[in-house]
Specification:
This protein is α+β, with helices and mostly antiparallel strands. It is built from 10 helices and 34 strands. The N terminus is likely disordered.
Length: about 575
């Protein structure tokens, strides 16, 4: 894979072209029970005799809440605050004109930010620190997965607007390196060590847990996602709850926030299998050339092989336009599966990523008593995420589920995450070096057997939920629900539909005083609410009507909970 880092231009007061080298990056991570607090440190050096200003693109996890922003210059440590986006920009530019050193972090999309540092003094080191609260992915093998991007790939914007070159995080005369200091506080099963598909690891156990660093001197290139996985020692309870309450100065100090992790029951025997109507939609655009397409095809083949004669399926590829394997859906017989695999093996790449037309073809409505599932397999490297998500919200057939499988070392989670949310499905990210059979098994395990559908939450203590639409509960795949509760606590009831009855789980949540609990939960609740409001905006018939109604709510959440959103930015001024 081509390295995704390049020089960052910095402009001095004399308007000459200079560079502000990124000396190194450091990831400091504390992970436990499905949540990670990540601090990304970026170390810059102004080696010139001029004051410099630098701006660059910065990839961050799509589902993370950006919870804090600090920069250190010399002996001074300046903590940022969240302000409305336009106001933050105006304050930043005013500070620059006044000769103050300032930093601004703005969200372009859920996984791509723009960071600016201004008036960096000559011969000075600067450290920018971004703190993120990141929900970990659960793998059906019983593992938590941390995925953090160190690079972002270019996006296809349409026939006349394809981006050129890689989106850069930063680089100087020599390529910068990243280090990792990850502490896993979960009990890891069978004494095994965390593993990675992306980088060599070095692990040791101390009083804090299992400490994980990169191998080879803890220095790696900024050219791919960091992926670390670890197995948990004990089965997770059917419902696990963690709570938090903000301090008295917070706008929501009168509320308690909770994260409920609902784990499906382990079946005593093979679960009942509902016949499936499966559509595989495979991206064959130019960006998928080589290893990405080969990986996508191998996963598609494995999914086709998993079908039973009771299932039906169709295959659709897309680049500039969609191409169907057959004119109609076929049964999952051995003959049809063999012919489908032969067709997949002949796929080639070329053309643009016209994903909208591909999805329209895959979502063609048809009568079916089977469970309708659409699996999109793509690197997601497009720049019109909003168009794709809006299409799903408005045209996905009733009862259908769309799952997004991202391929590659820097798959675009700004597309994958909202597409899966809009499709009431699941998101998967598959590395190029990952075993395709194992990856396909992970996808199959999560979509083949829904245990509980139509999940709902009830209870007098419930004030609101971060998740407006709860996903289905699949075998081996927990559902996480973020809630706002009365701080006095009380009973919460989860209800849903099983294949042979009703699902009911009750849990009593104790009271909590101000300033106690896991602060990450408060930030993640706000992030979840923002993402749901963004979904509502996409589903609205007119963007202006949605903006007038929903944008003020998004901005208020960003300000009150101090998180970055499309309408709020982090600003730090010396």
């Amino acid at each position: 894979m081509e390295t995704m880092t390049r020089e960052v231009s910095a402009v001095s007061n004399e308007s000459s072209e200079k560079t502000l080298p990124l000396d190194r990056c450091a990831l400091r991570v504390d992970a436990c029970a499905g949540l990670a607090r990540v601090v990304l440190e970026q170390h810059f050096q102004n080696t010139h005799d001029e004051v410099l200003h630098v701006a660059y693109a910065l990839p961050l996890p799509a589902d993370a809440a950006v919870s804090d922003f600090v920069f250190v210059i010399g002996e001074r440590r300046i903590r940022g605050e969240v302000d409305a986006k336009q106001k933050a920009r105006a304050r930043f530019e005013e500070a620059i004109l006044e000769g103050k050193t300032a930093a601004l972090l703005e969200q372009d999309s859920s996984s791509l930010f723009q960071q600016e540092l201004g008036n960096i003094p000559p011969r000075t080191n600067v450290v920018a620190e971004i703190t993120l609260d990141v929900p970990l992915a659960w793998l059906h093998e019983g593992m938590w997965e941390l995925r953090f991007p160190l690079a972002a790939a270019p996006r296809y914007l349409g026939p006349a607007q394809t981006t050129t070159g890689a989106i850069k995080i930063a680089a100087g005369p020599t390529s910068p390196r990243a280090s990792l200091d990850l502490v896993v506080r979960d009990a890891i099963s069978n004494g095994a060590s965390p593993e990675s598909l992306s980088h060599p690891l070095q692990c040791k156990t101390d009083a804090s847990g299992v400490r994980v660093t990169f191998g080879s001197g803890n220095r790696v290139a900024l050219d791919r996602d960091v992926v670390v996985r670890w197995s948990v020692a004990q089965p997770v309870p059917s419902i696990a709850v963690d709570t938090a309450r903000p301090a008295g100065t917070h706008a929501h100090a009168s509320s308690m926030f909770a994260l409920c992790t609902i784990v499906p029951p382990l079946p005593a025997s093979e679960p009942k299998v509902v016949p499936r109507d499966l559509t595989l939609l495979i991206d064959t655009s130019g960006s998928m050339h080589g290893d990405p397409l080969a990986q996508a095809v191998r996963i598609a083949m494995a999914l086709v092989s998993s079908l039973s004669p009771r299932d039906s399926f169709e295959l659709v590829s897309f680049d500039t336009q969609p191409t169907r394997w057959k004119s109609k859906v076929v049964a999952g017989s051995d003959t049809m599966k063999r012919e489908g695999i032969e067709w997949l093996a002949k796929l080639t790449t070329g053309g643009g990523t016209e994903m909208v037309s591909g999805l329209v073809a895959a979502m063609a409505d048809r009568p079916s008593e089977a469970q309708r599932q659409i699996v999109l397999i793509t690197d997601g490297l497009v720049g019109f995420e909003r168009d794709v998500t809006s299409l799903l919200l408005n045209q996905l057939p009733k009862g259908a589920r769309l799952h997004a499988v991202g391929i590659g070392e820097s798959a675009n989670r700004a597309l994958l995450a909202p597409v899966a949310r809009a499709g009431s499905g699941s998101e998967f990210v598959i590395g190029l070096g990952e075993d395709p059979d194992r990856a396909a098994e992970r996808v199959f395990a999560k979509i083949a057997a829904p245990v509980v559908t139509g999940l709902q939450i009830e209870g007098a203590t419930l004030r609101g939920s971060g998740n407006v639409r709860l996903p289905d509960l699949y075998v081996g795949s927990p559902v996480r629900v973020l809630m706002e509760l009365d701080p006095k606590g009380g009973e919460i009831v989860f209800r849903g539909t099983l294949a042979d009855g009703t699902y009911v789980q009750r849990i009593d949540i104790p009271s909590l005083s101000e300033g106690n609990g896991n602060a990450s939960i408060v930030k993640l609740f706000a992030k979840e609410r923002v993402e749901e409001l963004e979904m509502q905006a996409l589903a609205a018939k007119t963007s202006s009507a949605a903006s007038n109604e929903l944008d003020p709510q998004i901005e208020r959440l960003g300000l009150e909970f101090q998180i970055a959103t499309r309408l709020t930015s982090w600003l730090a001024i010396s």
